[in-house]
Amino acid sequence: MVVFDTSVLTLAFDPSANAPTDPSTGELLSDPQARMDHLIKTLSKSKERILIPTPVLSEYLVKAGADRDKRLLEFTGSKVFVVAPFDLRAAVECAAIEEAGPRRNRTLTENESKAKVKFDRQIIAIAIVRGATTIYTGDKKLAANARLSGLHVVMTWELALAPVDPQLELPYEAAESSEGQKPLAASPDWGT
Fold first, then answer.
1. How would residue 76 be classed by pLDDT, with cut points 50, 70 and 90?
2. Taking burial as the number of CB atoms within 10 A of a residue's CB, which of 146, 149, 161, 183 is the most buried?
3. Mean pLDDT (whole number) for 103-127
4. Residue 37 domain-assigned?
């Protein structure tokens, strides 16, 4: 099972979503929609389920506006997606993450808040208790905490495009005969 965070969920289902910036190039990620389509097709072929923690779903639905019910139905009515709550098991796991974390007493930067840090840890705790192995995210802080908790992380700018088919397609148009019919394909000349 894999986890989508809000940034990935938004890329997957909102065609007007802003493309993330690749930090290695400083450029916007090319064709993010095609990358998401390829990821979802790949996960679907391997019968991998996609976990959506309720804190992620909540954040996503806040941005959904009038489409909220339609978007919610996409997740709850699908066999591919699993919506998972922050329940008792996740609460216990979250406490363990907080308690064991090397950053628990650090000073937060101006871009962070205690609520954001705890929100990220809730997502990670839900992922762990549900048996997820990988989290797809565009959030560097969430990624760092997920790695510390043993999850494999794939950043949005690391998503691959679908491979190009190495077999080129050549257009073929058969010439019409004088009777208006297309001739049968010519047999190879075997030198006879």
1. confident
2. 146
3. 71
4. yes
> Is 183 domain-assigned?
no
What separation in angstroms does the CA of 186 have from each of 25, 123, 164? 52, 63, 31
Could you tell me whether strands 152-155 and 2-4 are parallel, antiparallel, or unpaired per DSSP bridges? unpaired
Which amino acid is residue 129, in one-letter code?
V
- Taking the C-alpha atoms of residue 133 and residue 2, their distance in angstroms, rounded to an integer, is 6
What's the CATH code of the domain at 24?
A: 3.40.50.1010
On whether the CB atoms of residues 40 and 13 are closer than 8 A, the answer is no
The token pair at 40 is 């979802």
- What's the domain count of the chain? 1
Q: Residue 114: give the domain boundaries.
A: 2-157
Prediction pTM value: 0.77
Q: Identify whether the C-beta of residue 156 lies closer than 8 Å to the C-beta of residue 11.
A: yes
Q: Collect all residues with Cβ–Cβ distance below 8 Å to 40 and sequence separation of at least 6.
A: 12, 50, 80
Q: Is residue 177 part of a domain?
A: no
Mean per-residue pLDDT for 31-49?
A: 92
Over the chain, what is the mean pLDDT? 83
Residues 6+ apart with CB under 8 A from 185: 174
Other residues' Cβ atoms within 10 Å of the Cβ of residue 10? 20
pLDDT higher at 102 or 85: 85
- Give the ranges where 46-103 is alpha helix by DSSP (H): 54-64, 68-76, 88-100
16 domain residue, yes or no:
yes
